[in-house]
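Ops channel
N.P.: pipeline sanity check, posting one input/output pair.
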């Protein structure tokens, strides 16, 4: 998105909504990350996996005129939707958050806000030019980052 507007993603349970933006260039992009890692480095849906979504989003932002030095991120989601589950394979929310954190850190992208974990789904919307990420839980609680 370039200029004033809103990016929205709903239905974030174990998924993570990641926004990367360049406030000065008034550019922002959003990925709805569903899984921590892609089964292959080449995928038709890079936005689905943390390891490929961040690369895809940065590449698209740079193509649109963003400065790598000004890129910032905010993200939300990663809930543990199955309470009491100890099996690692079902702890997808936690693994998604860890993967997003790692991918952003590996690229030197400063994280300016997060709302992760818990046991409730979320809907998020990001406003440009304010760079405000609003998070609404399934219970109706609101938080602004």
């Amino acid at each position: 998105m370039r200029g004033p507007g809103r990016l929205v993603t709903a239905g974030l349970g174990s998924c993570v909504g990641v926004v990367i933006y360049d406030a000065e260039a008034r550019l922002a992009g959003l990925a709805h990350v569903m899984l921590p890692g892609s089964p292959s480095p080449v995928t038709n849906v890079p936005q689905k996996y943390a390891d490929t979504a961040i690369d895809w989003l940065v590449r698209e932002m740079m193509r649109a005129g963003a400065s790598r030095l000004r890129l910032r991120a905010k993200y939300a989601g990663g809930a543990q939707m199955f309470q009491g589950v100890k099996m690692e394979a079902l702890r997808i929310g936690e693994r998604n958050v860890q993967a997003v954190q790692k991918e952003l850190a590996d690229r030197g992208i400063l994280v300016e806000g997060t709302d992760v974990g818990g046991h409730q789904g979320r809907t998020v919307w990001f406003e440009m030019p304010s760079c405000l990420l609003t998070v609404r839980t399934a219970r109706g609680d609101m938080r602004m980052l």
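N.P.: looks fine end to end. The radius of gyration is 14 Å.
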